[in-house]
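Predict the assembly for these three chains.
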Amino acid sequence: MEELHDIALTVNGVHRTARVPARRLLSDLLRHDLGLTGTHVGCEHGVCGCCTVLMDGDPVRSCLTFAVTAAGHAITTVEGLAAPDGTPSPVQRAFRECHGLQCGFCTPGFLCTVTALLRETPRPTEDEVLEGISGNLCRCTGYQNIVKSVHRAADLLAEAGAPGAPGGSGGSGGSGAESEA
Amino acid sequence: MKPPPFRHHAPRTVDEALGMLADAPRAKVLAGGQSLIPLLNMRLAAPPDLVDINGVAELDTVHCGDEGVRVGALARHARVERSVEAAAVQPLLGRALRHVAHPVIRNRGTVVGSLAHADPAAELPAVLAVLGGTVEAASARGRRTIPAADFFTGPLESALAPGELAVAAFFPAAPPRTGTAFTETARRHGDYALSGVAAVVTLDEDLRVGAARAGYLGIAPAPLVLDLAEAAGPHGDWPAAAAYVRERIDPEPDIHASARYRRHLTGVLTERALATAAAEALRRARD
Amino acid sequence: MGTRVFGEPVKRREDARLLTGRGRYLDDLGRDALAAAFVRSPHAHARIVDVDVSGALDVDGLVAVYTWEDLPGRVGEPLPLLIPHPALTHGRTGYPLARDVVRHVGEPVVMVVARDRYLAEDAAERIRVEYEPLPAVVGIENAERAEYLVHDDVPGNVGAVLVQETGDAAAAIDAAPHRLEFRLSIERSASTPLEGRGVYARWDADDGSLRVYSSTQASTSVRAAIAARLGLPNGKVEVVAPDVGGGFGVKIVHPWPEEVLVPWAARLLNREIKWTEDRREHFVAAAHERGQLQDVRVGFDDAGRVLGLDVRILHDHGAYTPYGIIIPIVTSTQLLGPYKIGAYRAEVVSLYTNTLIVTPYRGAGRPQGVFCMERTMDRIARHLGLDRADVRAANFIQPDEFPYDQGLTFQDGRPLIYDSGDYPELLRKVRALIGWDGFEAEREAAARRGRRIGIGVGVYVEGTGVGPYEGGHVEIDTAGRVHVSTGLTSQGQGHETVFAQIAAAELGVPIRDVHVTTGDTRRFGYAVGTFASRAAVMSGNAIALACRKVREKALRIAGEALEADPRDLEITDGSVHVRGDRSASVPLRTVAVLSNPLRYAFDDETAAATQFAVGRPATEPPVAEGDEPGLEGRGYYSPVRSTFAAGAHAAIVETDPDTAEIAILRYAVVHDCGKLVNPMVVEGQIHGGVAQGVGGALYERMVYDESGQLLNASFMDFLMPYATEVPRIETDHLETPSPLNPLGIKGAGEAGVIPVSAVIASAVEDAEGLRVEAMPLSPDALYELRERASGDPGLRVRETARAGGDGAATGGQFAAGVSGALPPSERGR
């Protein structure tokens, strides 16, 4: 029998515990042990970026991190980006407004990456956006609308005056849920 | 693509880590894991033990002094890349780091881990080699300092002995009237380079080329350093230096590029990197 | 009608869930299911001598191990040949688990079921399979040489020989004033969706029924295949395509071995089982596309008009032919593009190799055909010293010549007749968008700065919306919600939004009231699938037809309630009223109540439909003859033949004189897919297609060694473009409606990818003055081309091209301001 480790970590602000073998990848911990399937797995060798989550605020590949290593840290996944009341974050709203996603599989990784990028660089240049998302593959959009979404998210954050905080109070209109056209 | 089972050891201090490594001689050290974990996920490696040093706070250090930059084994690429102090002491380090994979990988990967992994296609080994830096290794038996020239022994092979932990790396500061440049060509932005050059040019007091060295990645089994001062001459004949390099190297073909192209490309990059480094050296000399 | 929704850039209804982690993809389901893993062949061609599973038996958590011997009856039979064709005389398919011989690396040999995927991989790793290696056939030329055979009973490795012709091409070429002959090649690429394949099955032993979730493009057909293999009636098998993380063609193939085996094992073990393909498996066990060699002979007149064209296409279809010869059929027909070709002959030889199967990837043979024709147009122009765009214009089918019969048979077995289009206008627009006419000045200005740039163009026609049919079901419930379902599946195209737009527009209801379900056999059982840019055309029109039935019924029932002639009624914002007068109206939710005569009420609303409330004449039955209860309708759209979209692309590229890196400075697209349902969605499809085209033109290839090992089976080495590799895409549209369908639409899904290799080849050739005959084009390949050309003037197309830019080796020439103007490795700094 493989040895099991008791780990505790904070996920989307909630204290979570699990009993896992040492080899359990953080991506699998989130998806299968904790049921947070919003984090996707596209390559399991660190190239595609689908599994990107925030670890203590920094984007990391959850497929290249062991759950035991993540113990004691704070993880934010796509499920934790919106405000507690469900209001989508500026980054989430921008991706919808700008048609920055199609199949949605790579999207959680982009959202986490971009959330951190804009916290660090609230007004990125075109080159800074490209560099910032350069480790995330998307097979659907051709990236053009993703780049547009990042700039739009910067606008929304500036309007809200609350740079980058996941689930930040936001407040600049639009439930986003059913507004059309 | 799930890793095979292993025993996980989580030391809190260097001494603890060294004890664990001594007890498990086939153990692998896990720092950033950005090179090791892909190998595990593909089951191309199956170490029985992993000594996870992510909890060893004393290794998470970056010291910048007049002599150079000393990077502890847990300092992530991103931290060193963003360090204004490190850039002031040795700008080549940050320049090369911007070519290491992608920003998200650099949030997790470590400088010393990249050196210990000793991938001949990686940027940092070439930088350490061209700067004549060192790696500090520790084991239960004691500590030693390994010069870069002795450290990289082959593809994915270093001079680290079983039970030894690379605790830090030292990148010497740039001397006066010195300029550096890093350039590489990769298929996609962030990929391993088809060829890459880290160049260091130092001018003498008469602003002639005093020293010119280039460290290469992607074209030899281990980082290759060439002294190009003679080939370039005192007035910096960079095409001549490039021609010299093309004769000296013997790159291997792979699925992304032929040996012939790599040789040609390495010459081009050599010329560009030396010219850029020399221009910087000149600016610094005149400041 | 309420707010205009058809033709508007309505924001996507899928996004709220996909942006918050509430999407449900295959591996998000079945958290407690057992996991399957497969032992796959490490050899390209070998005989299986022995399988020893004993090492796996002590793995904790192992549940079952299966080899071919364990598969009963139809489960163990070869997989179906999905699309038979008379020319496919030697079609062959594999077994779900290899029987005696493996024919490509990655072929499944042993299935393992365990408590989780980690343990399943532990067990798979310990199973020993002894192989006797056989000689591997790798590469088209080796396949044709047929020194070794992939299948013992397929002579020459030839699966199919297909000839399509119109007129006497050989005679026309021989009689032409000018003739050229050359060979072109395109390497393999693959769909490579970010979500791999996956199957999750659960057996309900009490009910004797099976529910299967599959990341598929064809759920109804997967159901039929599983039902047949497992001996179950269709009605006892449900197949659901959940959220699917991209398809791009690869997920149209079915049933995959795993789609047979996972449901079979789930029933046998009476346990939920899930298989989630990992990335390495996807490279070696799903499917590839594109690889072809083309030998071209063309004869033309002084104006560049093609008098005769003869193309011999050597097509590599891999180890098996489950999808028939659709790809080379498409290549050989769509090759003609927007042109009137005097006489044409195409001969396709479809060859077996010991490599992964070749099945459609976005474009499905069109990129190869367009590459062939557009390279030919450029050759003709260079040969005659004419403008490349003018030569194309000289060959165009004119707007007044539709319908235009190309005289061939298309992939649906129907005549290749174009329905509508305006190709001269497409070309005019793209020339204006890219600045074709002013380019020579741009080139000279760049050359003065030591920079080497070139321009290229490509035009294509795409048959979209092939039959046989799709259907739609629309039901308005007593809460006023409109439930729309169609059997074809979605992989991110925005169907939930686009179909809702169509339904909202047809019915006159707010789009928020419309709820769309796709790819779920529980909701709609008859469908073909999502491929060939057909979803909007096929299901869109079927849903529109279904809506029209429902609308007619709603107006009839409302007419009785309002005591008005149904012909005077219209529906606005979900309420029926007399046209132009909203003072008296009846909401659709009430119409839905009235449509279903009740004995039992379940709330105040439905009380209106009970037997003592309804005032229908006592002499008539409550449900009139020929009528049905409920406000619902079903519609099918089955076109007589395909509709033909078209487009013109142009690009400006820069090549580094020293490093041979290639950068796309500008990329322009003019696109005509008939009436646009949602321009935002169409534009997104184009962007994504172009990005895949850029991958195919400059980055992506499948590198097999001579023993049949795929050397780049990872995202490290299979170079899908990141954001840093894809240029900004400038778009313009043209709308020539299709006369073939009620909505006047043509498909848009594949358009973006089709001409990209042709356009980039044209532009690089122009920049370098060197003939480009093979794609993809890496810096290494361009460098080799330069080296070869230095000793072979025959490879030069324009002596002056190398005048500027040579010799300046400082690197300064690439130090331009915009990132788009930099070679890939210099970007993003």
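Chain B has two domains: 1-53+61-173, 178-286. The domain at 1-53+61-173 of chain B is CATH 3.30.465.10 (Uridine Diphospho-n-acetylenolpyruvylglucosamine Reductase; domain 3).
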